[in-house]
Design goal:
By secondary structure, the protein is mainly α. The protein is about 55% helix and about 0% strand.
């Protein structure tokens, strides 16, 4: 039984540690094994909790996709970091298999990632978001172009998980025109078009709103509710 415990905990390397000490008794091995099982159980529990949190976060975004337009680049980077997390329990989490007949790992998380990517409005924002796919939204060390390239590769791999079984997701990717990230980058604007509502970077509205809204400044003119302040705020006609 002691040998079985040693094999489960790591095999030869663990065995050599006990052999070198020579004094290892069965009770010592059993105690170490129990500690090992407790550690694994705790890790699995934590992994399950984190997977559930990622599922919940994806559901929040998918329920209200327009909320991501309010995210700063740092917030979008953190959101992508959370959604792309892949722990010990994520692939077997029954609540992370989509709602179809066949299991599709990360289906809802992939949808949320697509919503975030389609909300990016400019080339500069694309780079700022992809260089901040970190736990706290800080910029990853290294050259910007290399970091962006690596992030795009990671995103492509993530979106391919269960991909060939998910025609619905394929349709979403095609609809959002997110098949080729280099192409996405090239079509993004250099600067935002002020005075218009945000729209997905694949939509007709996004391409039509290429210049600043001529009525933008007038839209920002607010008349006080209390008329006694009219003259102070607006001056004499």
């Amino acid at each position: 039984m002691a040998l079985s415990y040693v094999l489960i905990m790591g095999g030869r390397a663990i065995y050599e540690e006990y052999y070198k000490s020579i004094s290892a008794e069965f009770e010592d091995i059993k105690s170490d094994f129990n500690d090992f099982i407790d550690k694994i159980s705790t890790q699995l529990t934590d992994a399950k909790r984190r997977s559930t949190e990622r599922n919940d976060f994806a559901n929040v975004i998918n329920a209200k996709p327009d909320s991501v337009y309010l995210f700063s680049p740092e917030a979008k980077g953190i959101a992508l970091y959370i959604l792309m997390g892949d722990g010990a329990y994520d692939r077997i989490d029954i609540n992370n298999q989509g709602d179809g007949f066949l299991p599709d790992p990360n289906k809802n998380r992939k949808k949320a990632v697509l919503h975030i990517l389609s909300s990016i409005q400019t080339k500069r924002e694309w780079k700022k978001v992809l260089t901040r796919i970190t736990k706290d939204g800080s910029v990853r060390p290294g050259k910007e172009e290399a970091i962006v390239k690596l992030a795009q590769e990671d995103l492509a791999i993530f979106l391919q998980i269960g991909f060939n079984r998910d025609k619905e997701l394929e349709a979403i990717i095609d609809k959002l025109n997110l098949r080729d990230f280099d192409e996405v980058m090239s079509r993004l604007k250099n600067s935002p078009a002020y005075g218009y509502a945000f729209s997905p970077n694949c939509s007709k509205q996004y391409f039509l709103h290429c210049d600043e809204n001529p009525f933008y400044s007038s839209l920002c003119h607010f008349v006080p509710v209390d008329t006694q302040y009219n003259q102070k705020w607006e001056g004499n006609e």
